[in-house]
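Quick start: read one record
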Amino acid sequence: MQIERPIILIVDDEKSNRKILYDLLKSQGKIVLAKNGLQSLDLARRQNPTLILMDIIMPDMDGFKVLEQLKRDDETKNIPVMFITALDSHHDEARGLRLGACDYIHKPFHAEIVKARVFTHLELAKQRRMLEELANLDSLTAIPNRRQMEQKLNIEWSNSNRTGHPLAIAMVDVDHFKLYNDHYGHAAGDQVLRRIANILEVKLKRPRDLVCRYGGEEFCIILPETDLEGSRHILESCRKGVEDLNIEHNQSSAAPVVTITIGACVCVPQAGEKVAQSLKIADDLLYAGKRDSRNRLCIKQVELTPKIEDLGLADRQKN
């Protein structure tokens, strides 16, 4: 597996300083340059750098103000920022660290010290991201967990609201899974969930598509920028893919093999609408399919009604 190079954003209004730091650090990662605070904020959101090296004294917006804005933005608040500045008073250093800077280096700096500190912070960032990734994975199936699904869904909901492109949200349930566990054992049931998670990932071919384990024997699928027919095609492929695994399930009334039922909602979010509405609709469609014959896809294009409060998912009896 290819490891992505870290991205280092260097922010300084002096071209000569940017050039010095570029030459010094180019072997440690991909270097992105910004010559003022506003440009750095834009690049931080678009590039998601691993580390930011920033001067404090800049026209229009100084480094302290840039750092404050970075910390207020959910997309950039966790990016470590290192100040490299001519401001050498204890007051300025304390202010930078209180605002959330990870390090503070005085100019003129020693090249080897800068390289060593940058290396340390890149390693810390790498470890932090690895821990975050582990926290977002389901321990049984190794696919994204509900926590990551909620983060991803909120992002795609906002994107769809901004662009006007449709968004499909699907709830997936393994048919008669309790009966499978009771008959074949929980170890066999765990293996079934792993195989289903794997085939669902295989069927989702686009980078932004996501399948996660929602809980128990339930999964959730998110299909950004996908209309009704496109969603129907992808989700039917998922349903058929699980059936084609041919995992014996002689306790099921849906089929002699393990199957899934899918409920899906396709919508274009508008201002004031809540994510939970679409989840509730997908959930209701899922259980309509389970009340019918199971092993089927129930999908619907809907126009959501803005709500003041989020709708909670209905309590359900697992079977």
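The chain has a mean pLDDT of 91.
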